[in-house]
Please model this.
Amino acid sequence: MKAGIKRITSAILMMALILTLAGTASADEEADEREAERTASYDITPDTNSIEGWPQGPQVYGSSAIVMDMKSGAVLYAKKPDEQHYPASITKLMTALVALENAELDDEVYFSEDSISFLEYGDAQIGMRPGEILSLNDALYGMLLASANEVSYAIAESVGTLMGGGFDTFIRKMNDRAAEIGCTGSHWVNANGLHDDGHYTTAHDMAVIASEVYQFEELRTVMQTLQYTIGATNLVGETRTFQQNHKMLWPENANYYEYCTGGKTGYTDQARTTLVTMADDGNLQLAAVVLRDYGNDAYIDTKAMFDYAFANFTKVPLTKEAKPEGIRSYTEESPYVVLPSGADFSSVRAEIAVTDKTTAAGTVTYTYQGQKVGAAAVELTEEYVKAGIADSAAPEITEGGTKADGKDSGDGFPMIAKAAIGITAGLLLLTVILYARYEFAKHRRRRLMRAKRRRQVHSTRGRRVQREHRREME
Model:
């Protein structure tokens, strides 16, 4: 009997040893594959290094990377910037942008059952409960600092409701807004970045999104905060305190970067490490992005790219240079391009696009050796706009306003022009009326939603009190 037990025990131990060795071998193979992938990625030459006369940038481990000037849009460093990758939690920057553009900081974020139930073990969260309510301000800290996934969902669902829909409304707005600001390779299916094959972006698109986010002082404040505490809520009496995850913001961390002014971290098994970082040296305000990177390499890569950009490029004010033919004036404050230090502005090429013929508005994009080094809004000359109008019936810019073919009304103004003005005025009045009705309806929906949430809270409290009372009676 004892001999049999010993044989069984030995067999079990042998099997455990075999499984352990097999697991170790599998882990070693995975580590070897990952190291081979990491090394192969590092050996890829950055795209910008092939530009004639461009400063040679550093090799980086990330599969895709970019450094962009956040105001002018100048791309200073690029490695496969348009290659699509999974973003992981840097998605939350896009969520924050859409939320702040469509809601107020004191609006309520309500945590539905749906905003909690999808969470799995290991997902980043701050332990919110169904029925809890936060202000959007507190929710943004929970989302951007703690990277809380349930908070991201609740923001999307609540702001989507304020927009007249729900969670899906918010996600559609994420995609629409991304396209509006110039993203060309992104598609969003959720608000937190948890893996989905249909949820992806590019380094270039994330730099564009970071540039938009950076224009909001409220979001800059959130991103630069190292620690934040959310107070007691309608359901939970304790406070919740969490810290900033971006290591380049912590002075005591080995990855600290003195010019860092914000950013967002991300990681999933499929995306690997993703990182967006903003930096300001007092002259240039830059956004750096790395996608599909490898742990701490993301910080090493980002620092190398920032050091390269700050050391090798110079801001050149456009107001001190001759304007391209066709441009009357710049319509934004202090426009500039960013050039390799020592580069001659005479080598820069300009491409003008008309954005509004009736007001002679346009944009000018500057390139150096084919690489974008800046863009600005402009007012165009009448001659340039006229030359660009192919349709003879289209309005033209004149000293006195617009003119078009048509019979004169007798006072020097064409009848067709008068008719057009009348129709335009009517449409404008209708638009104002519809917009006023929309705003009224939107505010009414907000009030109704807040009242509904308060009733839900009071009802929950009432049921809890009744249960406690019944227990006391028993």
Remarks:
- The radius of gyration is 29 Å.
- The CA atoms of residues 441 and 447 lie 10 Å apart.
- The chain has a mean pLDDT of 86.
- The chain is about 40% helix and 20% strand.
